[in-house]
Design a protein that fits this description.
The chain has 428 residues and is α/β, with parallel strands linked by helices. The protein is built from 19 helices and 15 strands.
Length: 428
């Protein structure tokens, strides 16, 4: 009886000892585990690279391991090529810089991770503009996090050049814009600096759509792709204005990069440029002072606000360290500290509402004020020209029509017909 009583005790003690030994062997590995992210992005130059470095520094300061995977070139197209090959190989990065339509495409394929846990904990629904939050979700679940808000309906102007024709401020209607441009042209001054690249011409186009048609028309025509709006007299007037604007651009604009057009305004070779607020970075890098050396103002936009945002989608990956890394990265991106640091470097404004703006310049302050106002008027609208509004095939149909019209003698009615036809084909 004694042997039978002691045998189980010896057996249990041995099991406990084995378990303890295994746990002790595992503890160093557990202690070394840390939140880890591999970040695929295309912030590779200027303020963008500094902004990416700031995010890396913040992530590492919170105990994370950051693996940097920058891909330069093509405005992100090269990075998307790398991403597709990585996913096909079963080696997806943990976080990827993506635009909204691409986020939806990857989400539809079931490739993205769910971020609802961190979103609920940190109340993303309360701190993000409603429309922006919607673009970060798929089927009601967060799969991405926005970093910033850029504005594309902006005029950048040289006050000394405007003063040559007696103007002290940027025009607030397209009619006034045309009148001012005619005065400048008569003095031998290039009224409108533009780079002859399809996406730049489309930014000009979307500004005219917003300014002539208003926010409801923009929504119906360029987002809902409503045929009545596309075929309307309003759209015909948009192309009429585009033809007028073509006459205010110099003849050497073909193939010009946007920053070279900004330099024309900066150096007094042109009066104005219509471009996203990333143009401000060019002025600031050259030591120019807003309000003094250059003017920043919304285009004639009927109180609308055309936005672009940089965002990160989190891909499904294996490993607790990577999952924790994704949650930490998402949390830091929308933290007040990073939102301030990043956007001061990038030239944009915070995606998170309520971030203190005392360190931002007058251009950013006006942008933030207008953004807030647009929330109550449904005027906060995604930009077509920088791929925020539509899938690539539909955006391509608009871009092709706009650039074909702008660089030919095509009539406004022909452009309207071509736009409708191109979109119908793209929808098939």
């Amino acid at each position: 009886m004694y042997a039978l009583k002691t045998k189980p005790h010896r057996f249990n003690a041995k099991r406990v000892a084995l378990f303890a030994s295994a746990l002790l062997a595992l503890m160093p590995a557990l202690a070394q585990a840390e939140p880890t992210v591999e970040v695929l992005h295309y912030w590779t130059s200027g303020g963008e690279a500094k902004a990416a470095a700031a995010l890396k520094k913040d992530f590492e300061a919170h105990g994370g391991k950051w693996i940097d995977s920058p891909v330069a070139g093509g405005g992100g197209s090269a990075a998307m090529t790398v991403l597709r090959s990585r996913v096909l190989a079963g080696d997806a990065p943990t976080a990827v810089q993506l635009k909204s339509p691409a986020i939806m495409e990857w989400a539809e394929q079931g490739a993205l991770a769910n971020l609802d846990g961190v979103a609920k904990k940190e109340k993303w629904d309360d701190i993000l503009p409603k429309r922006l939050a919607t673009l970060m979700k798929y089927n009601g679940h967060y799969v991405a996090v926005p970093v910033n808000i850029h504005r594309t309906d902006m005029i950048w102007a040289n006050p000394e050049v405007l003063a040559k024709v007696g103007a002290s401020q940027v025009p607030s209607t397209w009619e006034d814009f045309n009148k001012l441009a005619e005065k400048l042209k008569a003095q031998g001054i290039v009224p409108l600096a533009l780079g002859g690249q399809p996406w730049q011409e489309t930014i000009l186009f979307e500004n005219v759509v917003l300014g002539i048609g208003g926010t409801d028309f923009y929504q119906k025509a360029l987002i809902d792709l409503d045929n009545d709006a596309l075929k309307s007299d309003t759209m015909k007037r948009v192309f009429d204005e585009m033809r007028i604007l073509r006459g205010f651009v110099d003849e050497d604009f073909a193939g010009r990069d946007w920053n070279l057009a900004t330099a024309m305004v900066m150096n007094g070779k042109a009066a104005m440029q219509i471009m996203g607020d990333w143009a401000k970075g060019e002025f600031l890098a050259a030591g120019k002072v807003p309000g003094k050396d250059f003017l920043c103002h919304a285009t004639p936009s009927n109180h609308g606000y055309l936005f672009n945002t940089d965002s990160f989608a989190m891909f499904k990956v294996d490993g607790a360290d990577k999952t924790e890394g994704q949650n930490l990265l998402a949390s830091l991106i929308l933290g007040q500290k990073f939102q301030e640091t990043f956007n001061l470097l990038k030239g944009s404004i915070p995606a998170r509402m309520g971030v203190p703006m005392d360190k931002f310049d007058m251009c950013a302050l006006q942008s933030e004020k207008d953004m807030q106002a647009s929330q109550t008027s449904d005027g906060f609208l995604p930009s077509v020209g920088v791929d925020m509004a539509l899938p690539g095939n539909l955006t391509g149909a608009i871009v092709d029509t706009v650039t074909s019209h702008f660089n030919s003698e095509m009539s406004s009615q022909e452009a309207v017909d071509k736009l409708v036809q191109a979109l119908d084909l793209a929808k098939e």
